[in-house]
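Chain A, query sequence.
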Amino acid sequence: MRTDENGAGEPAVNDERRAWAPERAGGDPFDEIFHPVAERVLARCDAVLRIGGASDGADRMVDVARRLGKTVFTSIEDIR
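Chain A, predicted structure.
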C-alpha cells in the first residue's frame, strides 16, 4: 500500500501498473512473474492490507509479509 498525491491509500502493485501481459506469457504468469515481483515489492513495504475473499495468492503474499516482519492489516479501519 502506498499513498497517492491526496494521501489516499492505493495498492503498490495492481493490474494497471503491471509490466506484463498474461495473455502473451508462457506458463503461469502469476507464479513465474507476478508473485516473485510482488514478493520483492513486499520487502520495501511497511505494512500489508489483506482484504477480500479467498485467494491463495493473497494468502501467499501475507505469509511472505509476516516472514519479513511486516504488519498485516485485515481492515482499513485498523490503519486509520
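The longest strand covers residues 47-49. The helical segments are 29-42, 56-67, 76-79.
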